[in-house]
Amino acid sequence: MSSKFSRLTVALGLTLGLAACSGGEETSTEGSNASIGESLDYKITGIDPGAGIMKATTKAIEDYELEDWEVIEGSGAAMTAALKKAYDKEEPIIVTGWTPHWKFSKFDLKYLEDPIGVYGEEETIHSIVRNGLKEDLPNVHKVLDQFHWTPDDMGVIMSAIQDGEEPEAAAAAWIEENEDKVAKWTEGVEAGNGEEVKFAYVAWDSTIASTNVLANVLTDLGYDVTLSQVEAGPMWAGVADGSVDAHIAGWLPLTHADQYEKYDGQFEDLGPNLEGAKTGLVVPTYMEIDSIEDLKE
Ligand code: PBE
Known about the structure:
alpha/beta; D-Maltodextrin-Binding Protein, domain 2; 13 helices; binds 1,1-dimethyl-prolinium; transport; ABC_Gly_betaine_transp_sub-bd; Glycine/betaine ABC transporter; carnitine transmembrane transporter activity
């Protein structure tokens, strides 16, 4: 009974409120009229501070003159959790996004157009190894040099992990189903004898997938593989100072350009292991904006 009354009161109050506004100037208090910036408190959901995409996003804020906006630091996992939460309620959200990534198969998403080109064009992911690896572990070097796959291959592992599989198990299952591809990576390679191989990687879903698949392949070949999860800076620094043997997450030409220049000469670039990568600002398709310029209002 009392609930009926209170509901009536609210409805009446709303009617009066609208009536009071109707003759006046425009109001933006209603959800759908609020600007995209207001509805998001001018926040872009970012990832780990060391990621190249964070630097690019800071540059985007400058180049598109979005001084009211900021990119919030977090992690890849926190970003996808925030994305899921907003998506389930059809609320607005803008994330720092990249391809290949499982989020595009789980949610309907789009990249915001980037007319200035802050995020660059298509990228490739390179395998980066320490100087001297070729002499010390020629067969490991050869596998890394021959390692090459597609965004779809990587996507299978990423989705399996997302669905709850352990990264190692997801990688092992993919290897079992793709013996022909793995055979090309291991062509002409001799088995190891327990030699240690150290990879550095960052907890980006794409990198977790690729690092686990190579760790599995090398373990099957008889190597003793260690994976160290680090931030992006230490991942590059570790290969440069030789404390790790390799990482396979060199995003080029733009995303990791800083580290690539900083450590020039202190690593060997084995070239692309994947083509068709991309970074940018990503939103659910239900959002009405299409371009980073639309954030300016
Ligand atoms: N990423 C995924 C990384 C490279 C791999 C796009 C988040 C970065 O921004 O550095």
